[in-house]
Amino acid sequence: MPTYIALIKLTEQGAKNIKTMPKRVRAAGKLMEKMGGKITGFYLTMGEYDYIAIAEAPSDEVACAYLLGLGAEGSLRTTTLKAFTLDEFTKIVKKLP
User: Fold this and answer.
1) Domains of the chain by start residue, with CATH
2) Alpha-carbon span 82 to 15, nearest angstrom
3) Residue 5 Cα to chain centre, angstroms
4) Sheet harboring 3-10: ordered strands across?
5) In sequence order, which residues have a C-beta less than 8 Å from that of residue 17 and are 6 or more positions away?
6) 50-82 confidence digits (pLDDT tens)
7) Any idea what DSSP says for residue 46?
8) In three state form, how does the secondary structure of 10-27 look?
9) How far is CA 59 from CA 20, 62, 64, 93, in A?
10) What is the pTM of this model?
């Protein structure tokens, strides 16, 4: 399954509701599982981003729908990166002319 790394920033609304965020993160993980994926890592971070989440999803479309739904709740904004394993990277490089 493709891997995605989400760099997450809280909105003002999200910051006001910070005490509920651990529960919401767990609920978001369950939602991802219902959509056929899995949250494989979640981290509270210090610096430009408030959290980093690593997930696997069956497709770009599923990952996009999931993240759009989370953003629509109004508590966070994401910047998402599609990640490739070393094996996938090796196959990509072999295709270079």
Assistant:
1) 3-94 (3.30.70.920)
2) 26
3) 5
4) 38-44, 51-56, 3-10, 76-83
5) 75
6) 999 999 999 999 999 999 999 999 999 999 999
7) S
8) ECHHHHHCHHHHHHHHHH
9) 29, 5, 9, 22
10) 0.90
